[in-house]
Structure formats: C-alpha cells, structure tokens
Amino acid sequence: MSRPPARRLLALFAVMAFAFAAISVRLVVLQVGQAQELQDRALDQRVRTTELPAQRGQILDRDGARLALSTPAADVYADPRMVLDPWAAASQLSPLLHVDAASLAGSMSQDGSFVYLARQVNRTVAERIGELALPGVGLLDTSKRSYPAGSVASQVLGFVGTDGVGLTGLELGYQGVLAGTAGERTHELGLSGQAIVGGVDVERPPVAGSSVVTTIDRDLQFQVQEALEDAVKAQRARGGTVIVMDARTSQVLSMASYPWFDPNDFGDSPSGTYRNRAVTDAFEPGSTNKVITAAAAIQEQAIPLGLAIDVPWTMPVGDYVIHDSHPHGVMRMTLGDIVAESSNIGAVKVADRLGAPALATYLARFGLGHATGIGFPGESNGIMLPLDQWSDTSLATMAYGQGIAATPLQMASVYATIANGGRWVQPSLVRGTIDPNGDFVPSSDPQSHRVVSAETAHMVTRMLSYAVQDGTGINAQIPGYQVAGKTGTARIPAPDGSGYLEGQYIASFIGYLPAGDPRVVVAAILDRPAAGYGGLAAAPLFRRVALAAITRLGIAPAERVSLPPHALPVG
Amino acid sequence: MVFGIVVVNVLLAQTSFRITSAEQRLEELSQEHLELVSEQASLSAPGRIAAWASRHGMRLPDDIRILHASGGRHADPAGAGTSSTDGASP
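Above: the input entities. Below: the structure tokens describing the complete assembly.
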C-alpha cells in the first residue's frame, strides 16, 4: 500500500525548502560575505599589468648621423616543464639561433621553469620562431643596441649590457639621459588575449630617453681611425691615440685609441680595448710640454725673446746629467730656437730663469694635474706633484716634459689654449641632448679661463710654426698651409719604478692649423714606434689627420705668421 | 530594447577588435621604422662606403690643391708656390 500523496508532497517540499535555503545561504555568503574577495580574484585573472619599456635614446654625431640606436628584438626562453621533446625543438631552433642543438636541448632538459635560449635576436628570427609554435618555448619583447658604424668612435660611445644598461663610455656616462622611464599598462583581457571593451584599461606611457648629440664628426673619425691604424702597423707600435679638436670651442671632433673594438660584438675583443685612453690614461708628454715652459717664460718675461743663450749638449742637474737628443757643440739659441730644435738643455735653462713656483703655476693653469671635466667616465687627473714635493731635478725634467704625466686630452687642451689666443676652454664631447619631443637642449657653456695673454699665445704660435718650418717638425708640413706644432719623444717609466725603459719612447706631435687663424688642433701619439722620434713617427700621422680635417671641415689657408727671433740659420 | 543592447555590444566588440588590430599594426610599423632607420644608418656608415669605393678603384687624394679665386693662382701639392690661371673660379 502506497503512502498518501500529501505526505510525499510534504517530504518533497521539505527537501526543496532545505535545498533552497542552502542555496540561499550560499548565495548570501558568496554575494555578501565573500563578494569583494571573489571579485578581486576574478579581476586578477582577467587583468594583466605589463611593463612598457622606454625606448633608449640614440647617440648622434655632430651632424645627426646615428652612432648608436636601439632596434626591436626578442629574448627566446623556454619553460623546460612544458617542452614535450627537447631534441625536436632544439633541432628546429638551432639553425635559426645559430646555437648548437645539443646545447639547446640541454637547456630545455634542465630543472626549473625558465631558461634563456638566446638573447636579443632580431625581429625576423623572432617571428619565425613564433611561427614554429613550439610548446614551452616563448618570446619576450626587448631591444638591441646597435652601432651602425661598427668600431667608429667605439671607445667614446662605449656599449650597453644585455639588460640595456650602459657599461662604458657615453653609454655609461649618460645612462640617466639615454635610458628614459619605463611605463606600464594594466588592462582586462579575454581568454584569447583580446582587450575587454569597457574593462579596466589604465596606461602609464613610457617616457623615451633623450638622444645625445656628440661633438664627434663621424666621417672624420673614420678617416682618423684609418690613419691611426695604418701608422701603428707601419711603425709596429704597441698602440696610438689621436685627438682632433676644434681650436675655437675645444669640442672634440675625433678621438680614438688603437687598438679599438666593435661595440656590436664587444665580447670578441680584450677588455683593454674598451678604454678611451685619450681620456683615461696619462703618459709623460716629453717635449710637447716645452710649449708650457716657453709660454710661461714669455708671459713672465723670464728671457728676452731676442736673447741667445749658450746651449751645450749636456748639463748636470742634481745627481744626474741631462742631455739633448743629439750630440752638438755649444750653440747660441733664442727661446724660439730652443722650441724649434726641441733642446732639453735650453728648456732647462729657461725654466731656471722662470723658477719652480712660476712653472708650477703655469702647468696648473694649462690644465695639468686635474681632469678637464669633459664629462667622460674615468677621466684621469694625470700626475703632477705639488710644488712642495718637487725634488732637485723636478724643475729641470718638467721643463721638457718628464716627471709629469698628462692625458692626451690634457695635452691637446694645452695646444688648443695657445691656438685660442691664450684662453683655456674646457673640452667637450657632447653638444647637447634631444628630448623625446624632439627639442634640442644644448649643453651648458664650457668653463674657460685665460692662461696667457693673446700676445704671448701669438708669439708661441710663431715659435711652433718655426718648429714645423725649420725645426724638428718638418714632417708635419702641409703644402699651402702654415702648421704650428711641436714634436715629443718621451721616455717611458719602468713599471717597477726603477727608472725609464731603455730605448723605448712615446712619440708625439701636437699642433694646429692654419697657424694664422687656427681652426683645428690635432694630437698624434704613438706608443713605442719603430722610428722612435716624434718627428719621424708621429708627425706624418699628424699630417695625414690634419689633411683629412682640412678636406672634411673645409679649412682654408690663412695669413702666415712670421718666424720668431732666432739665432740659428733658417732654411 | 534587448536587440538594441545586443547590437551595441556587437559593435563595441568589433570596434575593440579593430582598435587592438590597429595598435598591433602601429607597433609593427614602429618597429619596422626603427629597423629601417638602423639599416639606413648602416648603409651610410663611412666604413661601408669606403669599402665600396675601394672595390671600385676609388681612393682618397694623397694631397690637396688650393685654388685662389682672386688671383687665379693655385698652390700645387709640392708647395712650390707655382701659379696658374686655371681653376680661378671658387
């Protein structure tokens, strides 16, 4: 006998009522008690925040030619847990990435959830890898720094690491300017990755880095590097440095030290080649320093310009005997002759008349002993002892450029000071920056100070012209132009501090042209060239670089300056 | 009413797809632009041009010749102070 329908209906109602109550309670719990938490969790699943990397600024030459720029690239990674067949994937990736298949397979077989397979591959390769749709293999957008001119000005530019941060050179020094500020975008995405209309979409756009406009002339820099490389190889030198500066503004038009490197593949070169030795390394300048002795003597009227003094071949100084480069009898020389013939003894005699305090003062005024402040990372101060630490021989040796050390840039600045009428102008490598809006922001005006009078500078120019016309610098002559300059043949201190290396020299020639209206200063320095002397090894390099500067910059000849008072026969 | 809401949603969805597509296209074009800029910079690099010129028999002059527009004189590379009436124009 069956139950009465009313009781069965009542039971069913009770069950349904209970179920409804349970659902209602659950609904209240979800909609009221846990509503916010669940909404947040749902939002988290839909909302993605992605970093929007800032475009790194470019580095340009003085005319806007691109020396460094960033291009889109991708990092290729793998999640080894998701890779189904490491060897199959590796065999497909290997020819695209130019990486050994066994190495790739090994990477994709290791423990962990993330491993880079390649960094900064170009967009075309990245697209082909994307088309392979390999399980567990993915791509991350990034950028790659490239240097279109290769090794041109590489030591000035420096390079960036794989994380896009500058490691050397201007890339390091101007990291804060070039890098920009990353942005981010927060938005709701559907399952297919499509943005949900009306959903969360908040973007903080990245701020691109500013571009840096250098003072470098790319084409002149290339010619300078060619000339320097040829000279180093021809002279079997250990290396060399060339600087080209604008004589009026002290802007560096070219700066190179051989050997150099290609910043596109900096890992292939020894780290020593990364250094911008023109700025970071000091050397004993030798006779190129006599220009300071001469300028100081003229300015302080330490010796009448027409006075000829006796200059023997050797002279005792303290416990040492110093001598000129070649044996000669006692010669009658004016200050002009001493500069032109590069007489050490003559320079010492002039320095004696000048006195140590005055020489120390002028060495400092010309910029020796402290960094120029060009704004390049790692710039050296050079080495100049304080006056109270000078020995019995310091005055004598510093008069002809030994016992003191300067960077090539400091020495180029010395000659730029004379070329600029006696006013030292701080050298510069950066003309300004271009902000993300495209507006040019010039660098602040360089510091400057007067070192010697214009009259003194002009007289020194006459002496330096004499040195090229009829002295040790004849190999620097350029037809149609009057060149002012000075040779240097400096001994090299032994690394153990025991004195100087025998028979090994830094050969240099530093000068400017046209002598009557200087436009460009060139410093040419070779480390231990076969020819030894500055006049034989470095002057021809100066000449070739100066010729390149003349044609590149369109430098016209100027009125010739007259020779200074001299006692030696000319011609 | 319901039909209208559905139509609006469809249109919004379509617009969303078009915006996303346009953004992707813009990104691609921006990247392509950067690559072309890089390629242009590489092609104009002095090393490449010098190598090309060298392969075609060209070389930089060993010396320079100065023309004096006023007097119609020029200094020859030997610097011997020779004069000439040719090349008088600047």
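Note for the figure: The radius of gyration of chain A is 35 Å.
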